[in-house]
Write a structure and sequence with these properties.
This protein has 142 residues and is mainly alpha-helical. It has six helices and no strands. The longest helix is centred in the middle third of the chain and has 26 residues, at 50-75. It is elongated. The mean pLDDT is 88.
Amino acid sequence: MEAPKGAGGRRGDRKKAVSKSIKAGLQFPVGRVARYLKKGRYSRRLGTGAPIYLAAVLEYLAAEVLELAGNAARDNKKNRINPRHVLLAVRNDDELGKLLQGVTIASGGVLPNINPVLLPKKSTSASAEKSPTPKSPKSPKK
């Protein structure tokens, strides 16, 4: 005999909730982004696609920065990404550097850069004089 059904016949067969992030195929939380957009009062009305789009853009930017920072960490023979690697990744990429131009990354340091004026001069005349004159072999000591 069946169990008595209540609430319009919907008691026993309730579906499992599926989040908006899973529906959109994203890792970033669409519901949380929607909540922040509503609470931020950026506009009176909010479309249903806006938080999905914003979460997708944020996820893409995070993935891009993490990939470049991971490459920088591997170049420095490290397994863990630290702020220095994030800074090197962002500043060496044209588009991310332009986006985060006014941002200071804590404990990131600066890009290695030496002004060419400060480097020692490579004199062509000195190297030309030294190369044609072969050095005489030293006489063996007695």
